[in-house]
Design brief:
This protein is α+β, with helices and mostly antiparallel strands. The chain folds into two domains: 4-134, Orthogonal Bundle (Arc Repressor Mutant, subunit A); 147-299, Regulatory factor, effector binding domain (Multidrug-efflux Transporter 1 Regulator Bmrr, Chain A). It is 39% helix and 23% strand. The chain is built from ten helices and ten strands. The chain has helices spanning 4-19, 27-34, 38-49, 53-71, 77-83, 89-100, 104-108, 139-149, 173-186, 253-266, and strands at residues 115-122, 128-134, 151-157, 160-168, 197-201, 214-220, 232-236, 239-248, 277-280, 292-299. An eight-stranded antiparallel β-sheet has the order 3-8-10-9-5-6-4-7, sandwiched between helices. Strand 1 and strand 2 (128-134) form a beta hairpin. Helix 2 (27-34) crosses helix 3 (38-49). It is globular. The protein starts with a helix and ends with a strand. It comes from Aquimarina aggregata.
């Protein structure tokens, strides 16, 4: 079993990597930041994330460029390849195609509201490639869903401190929520009705495999606290946000997020560099229809 100390240090490194994808990220540099030898750090990192460090960094850089390409149609592939550490445009294209099954230029032509990275198929040469598949609901249906089920506002948020647990992939997410709740209960925070539980998405299900999506399951804090083992401390950046209140079942979350991002694009808003998140206002098990009352929040420029 991986110790809480290891998890706490890897939490710091994951944030560091996210913030430095366009800088040089060597094993030696990252291991030094984590206060471990390169050999020891590499073993710990793979045990916690399920990926070797270099593979993780390459994947994150590819996914970062994918997000830019699908949101910014004017982005130049050659500039992105150099910015994110690839020796040439051809090496970047090969790495990109290995993940998505199509070239960066083809990827850029896709509509962000229509497509999602949700399956693997056999290519003609028998090798598995990641591809895009259309959502069942078309754009018009998703906009209609949003109009019928969401109350959307533009709100200004102040920077908010959080205590969090890192969760990679959808499997085991209930345990991550339970860890945060147990920690909050031990601190007496659940006695405060204003205490909120949230989930931050550091990756997008549109461009990252579900078993590799990194999330922070977190609790909002009203005072400064210290990290404890796998409970890390961070903050949600302040600024302008699209905030949409839903009362939905667990099965309707994907549809709601997809529709909200379509609404954002249709209304001329642009997502900022910060991560979207959910704020929960009830325990769905206590709801007569097992529904979640939840705010979906997208930081915008």
């Amino acid at each position: 079993m991986v110790s809480e100390e290891y998890i706490g240090r890897i939490n710091i490194i994951l944030r560091f990597i996210d913030n430095n994808l366009d800088n040089q990220l060597s094993l030696e540099k990252i291991a030094e930041k984590a206060s471990y030898s390169p050999f020891h750090f590499h073993r710990i990192f793979k045990a916690i994330t399920g990926e070797p460090l270099n593979a993780y960094i390459i994947r994150k850089r590819i996914e970062k460029t994918a997000g830019i390409l699908i949101r910014q149609k004017g982005a130049r592939v050659s500039e992105l390849s150099l910015q994110y550490g690839f020796s040439s445009n051809s090496s970047f294209t090969r790495a990109f195609k290995k993940v998505y099954g199509i070239s960066p230029s083809e990827f850029r032509k896709l509509s962000p509201g229509k497509y999602s990275k949700i399956c693997k198929v056999e290519s003609k040469n028998g090798q598995e490639n990641q591809i895009f598949e259309k959502y069942i609901c078309n754009i018009n249906n998703q906009i209609t869903w949003i109009k019928m089920n969401a109350k959307i506002e533009i709100k200004e948020f102040l920077e908010t401190d959080i205590a969090y647990v890192t969760q990679i992939g959808v499997e085991g997410i209930e345990q991550a929520f339970d860890k945060v709740l147990r920690w909050g209960r031990s601190k007496g925070m659940l006695e405060n009705s204003n205490t909120k539980i949230a989930r931050i998405f550091h990756d997008s299900f549109k461009i990252t495999d579900p078993d590799k999506v990194r999330m922070s399951i977190c609790m909002f804090l009203d005072k400064e606290m210290k990290a404890e083992g796998e409970i890390g401390m961070d903050s949600i950046a302040g600024g302008k946000h699209i905030v949409s209140r839903f009362e939905i079942t667990v099965e309707e979350f994907e549809k709601s997020w997809s529709g909200l991002f379509i609404w954002m694009n249709e209304n001329g808003y642009q997502k900022s560099a910060h991560d979207p998140f959910e704020i929960y206002h009830n325990n769905f098990n206590d709801h007569p229809e097992k529904k979640c009352i939840v705010d979906f929040c997208i930081p915008i420029k």
